[in-house]
Amino acid sequence: MTVPLPEMTSPPPRTTVPLPDFPAGFVWGVSTSAYQIEGATSQDGRGASIWDRFAHTPGTVVDGSTGDTACDHYHRYAEDVALLAGLGVDAYRFSVAWPRIQPDGTGQANSDGLAFYDRLVDSLLARGVDPVATLFHWDLPQALEDKGGWLARDTAGRFADYAALVAGRLGDRVALWLTLNEPFVHMSYGYGLGTHAPGQTRFFDAFPVAHHQLLGHGLAVAALRAATGGPVGITNNYSPVRVLGDTDADHLARAAYHALHNRLFTDPLLGRGYPEIPGADATVVHPGDLDTIAAPIDVLGVNYYNPTGVRAPSDPDSPLPFDLVPLDGYPTTSFGWPVDPEGLRELLTGLRAEYGDRLPPIQITEGGCSYDDTIDEQGRCHDPERVAYLDGHLRALHRAIVDGVDVRGYYVWSLLDNFEWAEGYTKRFGLVHVDFDTQVRTPKTSYGWYRDQIAATGTLE
Ligand code: BGC
Ligand code: BGC
Ligand code: BGC
User: Fold this and answer.
1) What pLDDT does 2 receive?
2) For the chain, first and last CA: distance in Å?
3) Does ligand 1 lie within 6 Å of residue 126's CB atom?
4) Alpha-carbon distance 169 to 92, whole Å?
């Protein structure tokens, strides 16, 4: 099938100063995830996921929408691969929907599910784009949730079985495997605060979800090593913590939030065991688990969006040892998230300082921003704020590399505007605008900017 390269209709950015040179072999990419783009949620034997169940529950998603159709990528993947080829990216990070592979989360693979990713991977390779596969981006089979989800230890073993099935089929062609996407967000929003699927509000009683995800990661690393020679990693999200206030209680709040967001999923991965988490039920950690979790990885995926402001809880009965507070003095995205490129450098140099030689090479597996992008009368989509956001963050990243942090790639979130979880279709993160009524894709100004930067960026030898 031939698909024409996308026509670049959006205006060019005002001239920007070319980016500095990045290390030889630096990977330029973009990211997406299955539930956010694929649609076709009941086609070809796909089972239900917790996100199907959650989004179909009234009151969970701000605009009442679901991922039933999303970007219809399941049917339009060839057009989307052409968009990737037009960008000139080295790599495309997508996620595999577990319920397409195992509709009930266990047992034999659904061959139609595997066939979809097989076609996707082959069409990427035909266009010279390396496939980077995330195995879990929050869409747990509902049947496993009914048996306890990530609160149940058994889910870790099921995850490793699923990883083996996918690697058995795609292991000869995937350039990088990432086990989990942002287990912190899945634990805290999904099982702690209830704003994401599966919608549970357990606060610190969600700790088993952290441990079982990490155990699943470790078991999946072993399964992937057995099935493929490809490099293996995990994606965490990190946020530098800014404390507002200067009391001892404020500093304790900072340390507590830092432990939860930045250390809980990294200390054990890098062989240090868990940080102190008050209220965490340590009995879920069995002998040998920490060794399984600390299996060597080739890449640490780092997602960065924004720093987080905290101070001591104002309510002494608060279930959390900190209050999250807005950070003043930064421009914000349409999500209200503060834009702080220096935070990226800070977190990278912080990881290096904290973990030293234990730190594997890093790839920035997500970075990006949402703005209220619209199509103008000429049919164009001009998003200068996104160009500025990416430009600033790539320069900050470059400074971190010059500071000695081993960072080998950057993936923009996202290729397409898509289903932004609890925000539905109200937040647009794409380099490509999607009209969700017609599925028309329009490359934004930022798409042309990123394409030109990738083409122009030299390499440091
Ligand atoms: C950040 C979190 C923050 C949340 C809400 C996420 O992108 O990573 O640190 O608490 O947004 O602002
Ligand atoms: C997630 C994406 C999400 C993005 C923007 C990341 O936390 O991995 O799925 O769309 O943030 O919120
Ligand atoms: C948003 C999610 C997002 C998460 C992590 C939340 O505030 O509702 O859509 O994925 O932050 O960045």
Assistant:
1) 41
2) 39
3) no
4) 18
Nearest alpha-carbon partner for 65 in 446, 439, 423: 423
SS3 per residue for 51-82: HHHHHCCCCCCCCCCCCCCCCCHHHHHHHHHH
Q: Which atom of ligand 1 is nearest to the CA of 237?
A: 8
Measuring from atom 7 of ligand 1, which residue has the nearest CA?
A: 305
Select the CATH number that applies to the domain covering 22-455 from these four: 3.40.1190.20, 3.10.20.30, 3.90.1200.10, 3.20.20.80: 3.20.20.80
Question: Is 412:422 a contact under the CB 8 Å cutoff?
Answer: no
Q: Is 252 in the pocket of ligand 3 (CB under 6 A)?
A: no
Q: Which long-range contacts (CB under 8 A, 24 or more apart) does 117-121 make?
A: 117/166, 117/169, 117/170, 118/169, 118/170, 119/77, 120/77, 120/81, 120/94, 121/170, 121/173, 121/174
Which residue type sits at 111? S
What pLDDT does 459 receive? 56
Question: Is the minimum distance from the CB of 420 to ligand 3 under 6 angstroms?
Answer: yes
- List the domain boundaries for the chain: 22-455
Active site residues per annotation: 182, 366
Cα 441 to middle of ligand 3, angstroms? 24
For residue 173, the 8-state DSSP code is T
185 lines ligand 2 (CB under 6 A): yes
**pTM of the predicted protein model:** 0.93
> Could you say which residues of the chain have pLDDT below 70?
1-9, 11-16, 458-461
